């Protein structure tokens, strides 16, 4: 494999455009004659709709359409279930709520008017009479007998009850020399992309074609679903995910109500319609994630080797479960991580509550699993008086043990088999970088200064790059410039650079001469989307496969032009040259032109005209990245404020395409992880009202809260794809809760404070420190 | 090959839409904010532009842009040469004329304004000072020494002088027992599609994409050329040839000035721009065809066997030759037709004149060749006192002699080799249908009644289905409906039906469930266009190749679903069934869905997701159709008016896809042929002014002028493509001038009138009859 650009810190192709304000986000789509939509949302977490009167809204001049559920015809029923599971009793939401609303923010009515201003005015003229019903808010309360039931036909609030087991946990725990029990939890949070959701739709009645601009992570499934729901051929529906200002998971949901309503309105009205979610809507109408409560029981031997582990946990679905059981399944499958756990049992209940629906958010259950496992490692170490890293070492899967079958079934329904890795190397590198050997003395120095400084470590294994497949088409134009179109969408992953590097190497051109277009179903219509750290692995290898075909074709055509054998040619600098006779050369553009003649014929062996090929990559199972984060934090014992003194990431995602891009992904993930540990928590009251639905109250970390991050990369290439790469998109965020808890516990070791849930905040921490000091006082 | 629908008179898929007025022609494209263009055209056939003052036009409120040549920047130079030839001294036209205009109607300035009305007003405010130059109008005058020269750098008006020879004409003519000489000519005519040309262009500055609606026969080359000329990537240019109201050849030109000017104006102005050619413009601004003057010398033996044939001819290019030498080369290559001519020499001069440019028009030189050859056959028969059909029989290539190498190089630069045919069968069938055996008595009866009734016969061989290639993509959607996209455009050829039949047979569905989309580069971007009777052959076989791949994929995927072997399955009625166990079945839609899963993976042997495949067909050379027309006409000796009493067509275009569609093609061709024989002639005065540039003066035949046409089909399948088909689009028109002349000569045999040029008209014919009668009077 040619690797002139692969692995290099190539600067981003997308930056000149984005940094000069030439990005196109959905709200930048301005169409002549465009109307604007606004959505009336439920103010209740759970209520019966007794009556809706839209007459006054409809009478408002400039209002073109007011819809409630009963106006939706065949689309009045529930929206599709995205990922079914045999254990799932699936309930999905409606485009507009029928008789019952089940969370605050659920769409009740749609208004389309000349302006958003007018549309919002019209919302206020819609009269809805609600009969409030008891709200199911608390996750543990929701499963107690006698709790109010959201879906009477289910009899209780349990969406799914699912068990996976490896070995025999009961037997093993009985025999284990040491047994510990604990409870761990992560609370509800939101991905909070800078760009909220948005949809613009245009219908052309003349050829019956629908174009939809959608800030989605999965334009192709949206296209396919819209075609099905709206009764249009797929070939007549074009979905464009233009520049998307952050996705992080919630934008891979399909369908959100507005993604159906806006196209339907455009079709009915014959005019383009735009809807842009405002931030307040986003907090209640875009999917959340994270709330899981894990009860854990672990058995281990005197050496700290884990013999048996069980997690029994609750997962909060919110009011619907269109995304199925992906998060809890990923959580339980991520939990064992780098460790050999011979007897492992995971049992969860996914639970409906009267809150916004949940679906994967960067990490997608992995932070939960890692939090539990790494906390357990710490507890074992404490119990045995061992260094936690020694416990890690003793439980690690060893480099010679790959492929390693964990024994579970993963989210893609494939066996959970790790392809490659070198966990000891990653750990030791990380410990070396953070200065672990010297840490006891350093810590003592800080303590001597009266400072509460702690060092934490967290290790994880991350499943990435699952199927089913992605594809790409690579085209060399007569100018010699290269175009790549792929089905994945882009929300900041630098695909326009990394895919360009992959293709440039095969075609002997500069990555700057390779234009990558993503997220436009008109340009490439086969694929699934950007999620699960799969873009680079699956679409990247599809780009590679397509580029290899184009390379072969270029050599074949150039061989005819240069009267040479293909194997005697080389591609470099935009030229095809005879090796050893550099004056015998043609430009790649000339080859492209020759491959597409206007007269004559083309040889059968070309299998078609032009320097163009499509390629696909369909992995039978995912590839597994791993990493270790270490941090040194300082806690202010008076305010509870935490400051990072150092943050080290050692990461193994196989072969690195572009270290600049990779570090950007890691940095962003760590930042989002820190937000989820210390700043971002969605707070509901007992009525199911979200109390902090604004950036005034729901805090995001900014550059000043995020420390410099030191990174290093170990490369254990994946044997599952030609590029040897593994996914990295979620890596940064995954171990942060575990790490943060570990470091703070170390810093506050004198107070004996345990961190078993996330996020925490300075107040909570300060309170714990005060309590601990009081205990010390009392003890005196 | 499955042939449930192939060969059947399937009703047209396009008719419900077109017959209910739901067609979309370029003028039906209405875009918000659209501006309108008008073109200032030269009133002189040849003049120097001394001065252009556009200030008053620019000052007119509502005018957005006034351009002359000097405003065009890099596009100020000549437009591209479409088909080069080593013998061609090519001159091509300019988007806007620079210092010199070279024919009446040549674009001089462009105005874009709020409305067409305003734009036309602005044209009148543009002041142009012309210095008239001597106009070169007459074709023979143009090549006389001392004639004015249009391009001083060439020294004369000769665009090309080209000779092809088989055997040794000089030697053979010297030894021939009989030698005749004659001169034949066809005059200038116009294709006159109901829809004139039109262009709408929209540029989106945000993603730099250009969409152009163009009434072209070749949207893909237009896309490629626009990308090159405008400096845009091909991937960012979309050309749509929507419904096109007739093409017939002139719409395969590229580029007409407006096809560059309108997109360029849309880019500069940032608003959509429309230009629709009016009929008066069409007469002078859209390419003409036909004027050729052939001097012929033929040597033959006592049996009427042709031993040597030479044609020395002039071809009228008009002012430019962007389309190269296709017409005269096709003419000389078509001339030998079904006859074995051992010594053949063709020599032509292509000549520039100050008239509208010429390019192929339905038949594209073939009517010229057939006219000459069939007239020669008649002359030989007369000379020897033989029946012309006996002369035909004696010279025919015999069914056992295929492939037959004529010995010339054809328009596609490939050797002129006929693939298959049975000319005697075609002739005998035609003679039987017209009642040739009984004709002498029938004619005598008419004459006895004082009626001038004649029977004519004309035979031709037509090269069709040349390369370089076409392609198609066939997709089965989850609904089970099938989509076909191909690169050719459609101007009435019924591709939506015939391609659907081809695909339906492979996939076991009804042709009505197959939607064919043509002429949209966004849906299929590889191909050449619709011309040279190649659509069905080249694109049809590409559809077949793609459908076969999809069929194989469907069987492969269904085999998995049905737990059967692919070879045990059959496709029919939209289902895939286990043969002999019809209850074991899945719908084609279910198979399509299974082929594109959202989770899991797809097997490597699928080579990609979905029931979709692209296929190409790239013939190394064309296939050769043939046919014989016979007609009985009656001439009114007083008025010269001619009436068809019968019209018989026996046609062999290989395997027939759809006899309804085929007959429609034949009928339309015959109608256009009759127009070219008796109604349609472009008349220029000595200054190069076209005197009959309106449908008041340039007459098109209507339904009342066209007789019922009886057709029969002989099928000699082509061995060159899997469907065994040959082209038929131009067949109807090709022999009509030869036939018409033959029949009229027969009808007017008592007057000894010879018809050696076309078109003629009633006045001319009445005059000849009067002269003949006068001669008879004199002789008395």
Automatic annotation (TrEMBL), chains A, B:
Residues annotated as domain Aldehyde oxidase/xanthine dehydrogenase a/b hammerhead: 20-134
GO molecular function: iron ion binding; xanthine dehydrogenase activity
Superkingdom of the organism of origin: Bacteria
SMART domains xref list: Ald_Xan_dh_C
Enzyme class, spelled out: oxidoreductase
Cofactor: Mo-molybdopterin cytosine dinucleotide
InterPro entries hit by this protein: Ald_Oxase/Xan_DH_a/b, Ald_Oxase/Xan_DH_a/b_sf, Ald_Oxase/xanthine_DH-like, AldOxase/xan_DH_MoCoBD1, AldOxase/xan_DH_MoCoBD2, AldOxase/xan_DH_Mopterin-bd_sf
Record bears the keyword Transmembrane helix: no
Keywords: Molybdenum, Oxidoreductase
Keyword match Oxidoreductase: yes
EC number, UniProt record: 1.17.1.4
Designated name of the protein: Xanthine dehydrogenase, molybdenum binding subunit apoprotein
Organism listed in the record: Thermaerobacter marianensis (strain ATCC 700841 / DSM 12885 / JCM 10246 / 7p75a)
